[in-house]
Structures are given as structure tokens and as C-alpha cells.
Amino acid sequence: MNVEAASPILLFDSGVGGLTVYDALRKVLPQAPVIYAADLAGLPYGTKSEAQIAARVSGLLGRMAERFQPRLACIACNTASTIALGMVRDVLAIPVVGTVPAIKPAAALTRSGTIGLVGTEATIRQAYVDDLEARFGNGTRLLRIAAPELVAAAEAKLRGRAVDPALIADVHDRLAAMPGGEAIDTLVLACTHFPLLAEELAAAFGPQVTQVDGAEGIARRIADLLAGQDFAPAGPNRFIVTGPLTGAAGLEAALTARGFGPAEAF
Description:
The chain is of the alpha/beta class. Helices cover 42% and strands 15% of the residues. It has helices at 19-28, 50-68, 78-91, 103-109, 121-124, 127-136, 149-158, 165-176, 198-205, 215-225, 252-257; strands spanning 9-13, 34-38, 72-75, 96-97, 114-119, 141-146, 186-189, 210-212, 238-241, 264-265. The protein has a 6-stranded parallel beta sheet, sandwiched between helices. Strand 9 (238-241), helix 11 (252-257) and strand 10 form a beta-alpha-beta unit. Helix 1 crosses helix 10 (215-225), helix 2 packs across helix 3 (78-91) and helix 8 packs across helix 9 (198-205). The longest helix has 19 residues, at 50-68. The chain is globular and about 55 Å long.
């Protein structure tokens, strides 16, 4: 397939969590043009129904693919991927990469055999996650909790605001209180927002707990799918938001540091 060198990779998330995927992608494809789309008008996804998420994500990505003509789309959001990935692949005529909880690498890392998984309400209840555990859990114990409050905390942190330590302590305490929770030595961050809180989580869980997320694996998958293609950025990478542009207020420093131009409205 002939692809224009300026054709972008489209990274899509409900908010800024997918920037953790973007950061990993820049390490393996530094020259690739990227359009990052944050559905701030739809944030948060974790509290929505499956039908709402599927309709919104597939509709938005269909319209964005028409407008931006990307060479590949990545749903850099665990909730949207576990619910809408198949539907989006049916809608788009380009490769679509999803983001799923990193249970397989966590199972390979754990020494105690007990893994904690933190995600949104919508992610942790999906049969998709049950299937990942059955296929790749390798007999480990997986303890899941929903921590939707961490999405807002990550959004705020990237805008320069402090994270309430009590939020992080509550996540730790709820996991530790589950049967076998004291044995957790590996923590799956099943939301792309959560690695933005890696320092705070490390302080609460201690050095004996290894955090695992899917960003590097997703970046490698994208690089593999685009192997041999030419990249020629036409300018700074673009950061697109749904809803009012005021939703991106406070992100200027984070966007500039990552090579984005000013936020634009979709």
C-alpha cells in the first residue's frame, strides 16, 4: 500500500492518558507525524455504558479518519479498546491498534503469583479482561479494582496540579484488603492515564511492587505494522480536542515538551 510520507498516525483517547503511548511511540518512530485526539467532551469513559462508548468511539474515529486520512489509528484507551475495537476495525479501512490490560507481561514478571489490576469500572467488568486472564494469567491470582478517580488525578497532574495522596493510598488499601492482597508484587495499570501517576503509585505501594503498562508493547506493534514506510512531518504534531478548547487549558507545557503545536478544536 502506498502511503503519503506526511500521512499521520492517529492516536485517540478520552483524555491525556494516551500521551503515555505517544511518549513510547516517539522512542521507536521519532519521525512519524502524529495527530493526537483527546475526546475531552466525552471524558470520562469509565462511567459510561458499553453501548454509549461503542457508538461514540466508532463514530468519532470514522469522522476523524475521513478528515485526517491517517495511515494507522491507535485507540490509546483500555476502556474504549476492550469495548469498541472490533467495531472500529469494521468501520476503518486502515490498521487499528488497541490497548488492552498488560496481564500477559505481568504474569511473566510476578514472583508471588498475585497481581493487582487497576482500571476504570467499564474496563474491569469486561469479558475481554476475563479472557486475557484465562489465556495469559498462567495460573496467577488477579485482583481487580476500579479507580476512576485516578483518571481525573492524572488529567490534573499533567496540568500542573498536585495529586491528593489520599486517593493513591485508598487504591493501595482497597487492593491490600482483598483476599491475598498483601502478596501483590505486580500492578497492572489498565488505563493509559495511570502511568502518569507512576511516582505517586510507587510511593504508596513500595519498591517491591512492579508497575506494568502496555505503552511500550503498543508502540512496538505500531512500528511493526508500519515497517518500511516513509515519514516526513509537515510541521509540529497536532493535538486535537472535542468540545471547547478551554478543556485543554493548562496542558500547554506538557504539549510543548512533546513537540505538539497549540491545541485545536475538532
